[in-house]
Amino acid sequence: MHPPSQTAPATPATDERRRSHRPLVTAWSQRPATALRSIVPDGDWSSIDRRLLDSFIAQATRESAATDRAATPWPQPLFSQYSAYPLIGERLSYETAVGDRLARLSRVVVLAAASAAGVAVAAPLDPLAEVADGLWLLAEQTTWCWAAHDDAFRRFGTVTPSLDEPFLDLGAGEAVAAVAWAIAVLGDELDECYPGLTDRLRTEAEQRVFQPFLDRDDWHWLGLDVDPDGEPVVLHNWNPWILGNTIAAAAVLCSPDRAELVIDRAVDGIDRYLAGLPRDGAIDEGWEYWWNGAARALEAVETLDRLAGGRLALDVLDLLPESLRFPLRMQLSADWYVNVADARARGDRTLPFDLLHRWGRRLELPDVVAYATAHRDPDAPVATDRAGLGRLVRVCLDGAWAVADARNATLPLPLPASVDLPSIGVSLAREHDGRSDGLAVSLKGGHNDENHNHNDLGGVIVALDGVPAVIDPGRPTYDARTFGPDRYDIWCMRSDWHSVPAPRGLLQQHGPEFAARDRRGGDHGAQASWSMDLAAAYGLAEHEHWRRTATLDRTASRVVIEDVWTLDDPAGTAVTLMLWGDVTEVDQATLHLHRPVAGVRDVMLQHDADEVAMEVVRLDDAMMRSSWGETITRVRLLPRPDADRLLVTVEAAR
Length: 654
Known about the structure:
Layout: E1 5-7, H1 16-20, H2 23-29, H3 50-63, H4 79-88, H5 92-116, H6 127-140, H7 152-156, H8 170-193, H9 197-215, H10 238-253, H11 256-276, H12 287-290, H13 294-307, H14 320-329, E2 331-333, E3 336-337, H15 353-363, H16 366-373, H17 389-396, H18 399-402, E4 418-421, E5 426-430, E6 439-444, E7 447-448, E8 460-464, E9 467-470, E10 501-502, E11 511-515, E12 517-523, E13 527-533, E14 545-553, E15 558-566, E16 574-579, E17 582-587, E18 590-594, E19 603-607, E20 611-618, H19 622-628, E21 631-638, E22 645-652
C-alpha cells in the first residue's frame, strides 16, 4: 500500500547538480533522427466524454448567432481593461476577458474535432466557422501579453503595448499554444475552408513569440541570470509554462529548421528548471503552483516524446517520481492542503489530474494513480474549458482517464503518516496513516526569499478530520502590489497574520538571510516532531534565540506547539494563531473553536499565555473567501513578562 512516512533526500538547488545535470537536453539530443511528429496524442475523438461534449454544445447553442440575433458575441478584451493595470493596478478584468475568449475557442475546437470524427453535434452552429472566428480575433488582438506582465509601461512609459517589441509572457504563451493546438487538430479543414487563415496565424506567432524568444537573452524565466554569488537564480513556473507552450507552437507553426532551432533553445531552458528542482520533488511556490510549474514541465516532456515518436529517453529524468508525488504529499484530505506560499488551502477538482494519472500509469506509481483517481468524478465532465486547449485535447483523447472512477478505486487516497521535505523545510504528520480523520500538523521552515514568498517561517497549520483549524490565510487576488516592492504591505503576506511568533513584537523581514536555522526532527512512530530556530527570521542578535517545536502525539491525540526563547528584552512578545471557525474563551487558558464544516469535530486549544487578544477578520477578497468564507479569527497570545516559553496544545473537543 503506502509507506507510513515519506522522506525523500533533498539536494540543494544551487549545488553541482544544478550546473551539470542536463537530463532533458540529453533525452532530446538522443531522439531518433526523424521528422517531428504531430503534437496531438493518439486517441479517438468519437469516444469523447459525452458530459463534456453536451456541456460545450449547450454553451455554444446559447452563444450562437444562428439562433438569436442577440446572442453572446465573442469576448472582447478592451483597452480600458488593459490600461487598468498601469493606471490603477487592477489586472483581473483584462485577464478574465482574455481567458473567456480562449475558453470559447477551446470549446468550439473540441466540437469541430468531434464533429469531424462523426459525432453528432446537435447545435445550430458551424463549429469550424466558430473556430475560424476565434482564431481571427486572436490574430487581430493587439497583444497576446497580459497587461500585468508587459514591460512596455516600464521601458517606454506608455499604457499601450509595444507592437515592435512584444513581451513574451504567460499570456503570449497560452495564446500561441491555443493557435497551435487548434491548427494541429483542425489544420487541414481550416486550410480547405479558409485559405490563408493559418498562414496569417503563423505570421503573428513568428512576430509575437518566436522572433522575440530567439532575439532576447534577458527573459528572466530562461534561467540565464545569476545571483550575487554567481549561482543561477532559482526558477519559477514561468519557465516551463512558457517554454512548454513554445515547444508545442513551434512544432506546429514553424518550418522544420525553424522549429528545431526554437525547440532546442526551449529544451535547454526547461532543463535549467529541472536541474534546479530538489531531489525530494518539492517546489517552494506551493502545491497549487506545482500544476503550472513542474506539471508544465511534464507536459513539455509529453510533447517532446510525442514529437520523437514515443522514443524519448525518459530514464534520465530520475526526479520525476518524487515530483509527481508533491501534490499528494501536501494533502490534509481530499479537498484541503498545506497551503504554503501563494497556494490556496482548498483544493480544486478541475485541475488536470489526468496528467498525474497518465504519468502514474507510465511510471507504475500506484500512489500517484490513486491520488489522481480519487479526484475523478464520473458524474462530472472530464475537464473544463478553462484548462487551456492543449490540456483539453490531451484529456479528451485519454481513454484510460475517461473511464477512471473514484467510486471503483482499488487503492485508497494516499495520505502518508508523515512527510518531510527538507528542500523547502516543510513537514507534515497525521494521526493515522492513510486516513484523514484525527489530527494533522505542518511546520514550515525555509527562508523569506522563496518564489511566491510569504513571511511565514515557523508557520503551523493544524487540521482536525482533514479540515484546517489553525490556518495559513493564503493569498488575495493578484494586483499591482503582489509581485512588486509593495508585496509585504499586503496584510496576509506579513508574519503578524500567520501562525508564527513575534519576538518583541517584531515582524519577519524579506530576504534570503531571514531564514529558519538548525531544523531538526522526524517521525518516531508514537510522536512526530520538528523544530527550528527562528531568530534569524527576525534579525535577532546572534546570542538571542527562538526555537519553535511542533509535535504530533499520536498516543494522546494531541498537537503541541512549543516556543522557547532567549531575548535581551521580551517586552511586546506575542504568538499569533490564525483560526477558522467561531472562537470562544472557555476560561483564561482554553479556547473553543466551533468548526464551520458539517460533520467535522470542534477543536479545543489550551495555552499558558498571560493574556489573549482576539479579533474577527472579515474577508472581502474573492480569492480568500473561496477557501474561508466570510471570516477568520486572529488570536494573539501574550506571555507573562518574565516567561521564556509558551505552550499551546490542540485537541478534538470532547
